[in-house]
Amino acid sequence: NSGTLSGLNSSENAVPADAKNLRVKLVLLGDSGVGKSCIVLRFVRGQFDATSKVTVGASFLSQTIALQDSTTVKFEIWDTAGQERYSALAPLYYRGAGVAVIVYDITSPESFKKAQYWVKELQKHGSPDIVMALVGNKADLHEKREVQTEDGMELAEKNGMFFIETSAKTADNINQLFEEIGKRLPRPAPSS
Ligand code: GDP
């Protein structure tokens, strides 16, 4: 679907707009079903829709937040459903991305394994200064947990990533995820 994908070029610029108003392309990675779309909808619209249908192809949403230091960050969020089909386009998907968020489902060891795969992919294709976050989603499903918090922490630590467990369903840690990413973005050098 070239119509959808042509938009990929529009947000190549990962360079902050200015010192107080940052703008960054954020790509979401992770197994299908881990809750990527729900995390984005929770963050952007404040909603959780358990029946939300997975979008076909690449979708794009943006959201601006204000940080405590009065910096604003505009996230241009890329979420591709079934992105394996687009693997030939991976370099295009990653290009210009200042942030990569790798999501797994704490009830699914397979999705955690897949997260490890995405870490390697990013190290191959991502820019060296990309801010990486590892997210264990569906933290509300305690009784079904199969991936321990420590395992997520360890993977993140080994790869210089920020780690957090979230629930798109209860909204737990969703805003925190984006705030913490915002804090870790490189600030432009003063221009004088
Ligand atoms: P994606 O394929 O990664 O984009 O996953 P979706 O966002 O489409 O979510 C897949 C399924 O997981 C849906 O049925 C959601 O309702 C469910 N889901 C997503 N996030 C959560 C969560 O935090 N908790 C629970 N219990 N279910 C979730």
Automatic annotation (TrEMBL):
Q: Which SMART domains match?
A: RAB (SM00175), RAS (SM00173), RHO (SM00174)
Instruction: Give any Pfam family that matches.
Output: Ras
What GO molecular function terms would the record report?
A: GTP binding; GTPase activity
Mind listing the UniProt keywords for this protein, alphabetically? Nucleotide-binding
Q: What is this protein called?
A: Uncharacterized protein
